[in-house]
User: What shape does this take?
Amino acid sequence: MKPVDLARKLRREAAFEPAALNRGKAVLMAAIRREAEPKRRPTIVPQVPYQDISAALSFLERAFGFREIPTARFVSADGVLLHATMEFGNSLIGVGGQGHHGAISPMSGGVESQFISVQVDDVDAHYQRAVAAGARIANELRDHSWGERTYWALDIEGHRWRFGQPIREVPQSGRRRRPGEH
Amino acid sequence: MSLPSDAELIGRSLNEPEAFGLIYDRHAATVLRFLGRRVGAEVAEGLVGEVFRIAFERRKTFDASRVTALPWLYGIGSNLLLKHRRAEARRLRANARMAAAGEAPDKRAGAAALDARLLFPRVADAIDALPDGEREALLLFAWEDLSYQSVAEALELPIGTVRSRLNRARAQLRELLEPGGKKRVRSR
Assistant: This one.
């Protein structure tokens, strides 16, 4: 007997369940669907005006960990940066100039008319990063009775940001805001 | 009109991912049987979808000059099997026992049957003890009936390397057949 024939003697077919191939196909089709689905984009995208867009982009990345999407820049014919888009988690913000659309930076207007609330994975680490990058802390880190830990920061032009992380489940019925909580 | 080749389908799937489903329909049964021979039905059933998922995710790297995707799929399967060495060794020994039992009612002398009963477990041990690359080349060649060229494509090796691996594997098995050959094979 040849050596290879000897090895062939140990070949034996396995007995499969009839549905075995269907389950395998489901695994493949799930991978195909994941790729075929257009990347999910958030429905609402806050547009945040700044006097100095470049400085804002740099600060928001250093302090808050936002990342600019480089392919989404708008630049004027003479090379001036008009608008950029940043992503964080599954969300986006627009970073633009001020004026033509009526929105202005708190640095120009002296007031903030709204703030943006952001959920982060580790609010303590996020706080450290923001402080290290020179963010002004408007409200220190604290735990809230509704099960969240938050801090508030002002960016380089005075926009107000709230960062929070859920720390425990609190049933809806138990959520009562106490004095001083925000 | 002739059916599109695997290479054409995979090329099409770069823009239309769903087209890759046809690659599954064509080859999944073959790949499943291959995995089943090696690690048994239960493990194989869990792996067959993985083979095609990995293939789908790597489809950009498929060499479009190959007409059939089967050697490529065998290669992905071979890689996955390395994580199931224990199941593979178990099945190989079970196969040896069944092969030995199958030889028993042989018309020839009882001595030959006895030989088979002793020989096959040693063949199983010898195959199991081969280096991964040699075992894979041997079993793709002997069990799957792949050509040298297809084994080379599956394992992404030059054909000369496949030839030398197969020769080394053959030499190990030949020793078991020769009188006065290795009496003992390293067993685990």
